[in-house]
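Comment thread on ticket #2218

A.B. wrote:
> Attaching the input chain for the structure job we discussed in standup.
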Amino acid sequence: MLEDIEIARKVKLLPIEKVAEKLGIDENLLKKYGRYVAKIPHGYLRNLENKSEGKLIIVTAINPTPAGEGKTTTSIGLSMAINRLGKSSIVTLREPSLGPVMGVKGGATGGGYSQVLPMEDINLHFTGDIHAVTTAHNLLSAMIDAHIKFGNPLNIDPTRVMWKRAMDMNDRALRNIVVGLGGTANGYPREDGFIITAASEIMAILCLAKDLKDLKERLGNIVIGRKKSGEPVRARDLGAQGAMAVLLKDAIDPNLVQTTENTPAFVHGGPFANIAHGTNSIIATKMALKLADYVVTETGFGADLGAEKFFDFVSVVGGFVPSVVVLVATVRALKYHGGLSIKNIDEENLEALRKGLENLRVHVENIRKFGLPVIVALNRFENDTEKEIDAVISYSENLGVKAVVNEAYFRGGEGAEELAKVVMETAGSGNFQTIYDWEDSLEKKIETLVREIYRASNVEYTSHAKEKIKFLRKYGFENLPIIVAKTQYSISDDPKKLGAPSGYTFTVRDLEISAGAGFVVVLAGDILRMPGLPKVPNAVRMDIDEDGNITGLF
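C.D. wrote:
> Ran it. Output below, let me know if you need it in another format.
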């Protein structure tokens, strides 16, 4: 099989103005980044207010494994297939983070004959959105330390500064650092650290903001720390929101690209789903819904993370009503959940597969709790046997769910046509609802998710978490929705608990406020917001020749 980048180079791309023309967008509105990438002004959404909206398809997955599930590939292939069947469709995706691109996960533009292009640009610096978020984040960091050095009129407690620094790379050495060394000219020494840009509250804000006014208001609401008296200090107290908004003035505009079959795609924003809300920007999705019959939106990681957060949080903020959910799975990943080691993953093993199917069952049951119809997309791999495929289809049917084999990786949109037909037939047959009420207490919201989605029998709060709940309640943050930061590899808080764990104790170790984004982050287990590179990162496979041709980027 050709490498993804080789397939991408064989595709005849349309000039980006031709892609925009398909959507009825005037070329003069575009801000072009070369021949195949452009930004659409976010204000263009106002021109579409009177247009009806298409149907929203949510693509999620079982818990991810080293065997891979192909969620982005499925999203792209499904959107292409809908277009092939005579309806208009746009796929909306998050922007890749350079950390995973250079680390273990690789690029995030799909694969095979189901990609968004130009993949080199999208996976690397793209239109500079993530760099803009990084710079806005670190401007606020710098303003905090400058304020403390020059008299500290807000009386910020240096030991309770919550705002870390950010960079778009996996670098474990920067998780915990000390800043301000070298004498009084450099400020006052204090403990600090870095998070990856995808975990920045500013990234979440960018993806949630309705317009520049809303963006600036949300930036001003960011809580950066506490005064010595205990009261929260906000970014607006430092006067930082205006300059941060200036740095994000272009980043707020959605990015238009295309797929391997010239289907329009919006790739905008990049919050991770295991540490943030895990969906592309609300502006991009809203715009797409006004421009197409069907919009395919991918939510990050498994349905316990990205999908739950979309349903309970993003849909409320954006006013979205999902029509149908596509749950992506592979035979390989299911066997891994059933206890098969990764080195034996390509061997037929029906016993391991049957055990692993319990993970699929849990996610199907969870999605149904939101009143939504679900379809299983079984991504085919070359070594899958007919017995294994039949076992997944039969198991799904016993759950009352249609399972469809998807071959978009090998055949592009044609390989996802059967899936598209079932999705379009099913879309809109549910009765969408959230699983908790925002007005519930923090403990009740946490315990609802722990019981209904993560399948634990009880919740244990560390003493530190209990203190944080008191702080959040005292200062008016009780009724915000919650974003649980936990491992993506299990429905539980323990990455080693594969399959369908239940009856365990779920531990909440900390809570943090993201007041600008409008949610409370609940940290569980050992989840980190600054990943590290693996022993052999993807970066060592990448190279570029004297003609500028890149290899190893996938």
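A.B. wrote:
> Thanks. Noting for the ticket: DSSP finds 18 helices and 25 strands in the chain.
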